[in-house]
Design a protein that fits this description.
single chain; 156 residues; mainly alpha
């Protein structure tokens, strides 16, 4: 099998597909060195993504910040239909931002293997999201659990 086909297969399996220039980098480094580089990156921050990810401001919030102001003072949120609907809407917004950021990282990011593994573990360790008690923390689960451990172990 020629190198072009091998590189195509590697990029197709270890990333979401080749981007412009990826085959050249792979040819320059060789498959083993390229894979070592992907594994060593371990989800390192990709500064080139910052402008694109700024479209998803919820990703930077801590869970308590995402939930702040949701429940009217003096009332229990789970008993107040309006507050529950507000929590659901906020949770959906956060879940959509997590999904949108995943697409941006998969298409434009420099760590394709990490994104493939994030996708795998997000599916494998799926937590049902349509529950008002956890929607607003979905971004933290993605950041603190899945992304943090995608290329390693899920042990503390």
């Amino acid at each position: 099998m020629d190198d072009g086909l091998r590189f195509q297969r590697l990029l197709g399996r270890a990333t979401f597909g080749p981007r412009p220039g990826d085959r050249d980098v792979l040819a320059r480094l060789g498959a083993e060195a390229w894979l070592d580089r992907e594994l060593a990156a371990g989800g390192a921050w990709d500064p080139g993504l910052a402008p694109r990810l700024s479209a998803f401001p919820s990703l930077a919030l801590e869970p308590d910040q995402a939930f702040q102001g949701m429940a009217p003072s003096g009332r229990r949120a789970e008993r107040d239909r309006e507050a529950v609907q507000e929590m659901r809407n906020r949770g959906r917004e956060i879940a959509h931002q997590v999904a949108g950021a995943r697409v941006v990282r998969a298409v434009h990011g420099d760590h394709g293997l990490h994104e493939v593994m994030v996708d795998f573990w997000s599916n494998h360790l799926n937590v049902t999201n349509p529950h008002e008690a956890c929607w607003w923390s979905r971004h933290d689960y993605d950041r603190s659990v899945i992304r943090k451990h995608a290329l390693g172990k899920f042990k503390n």
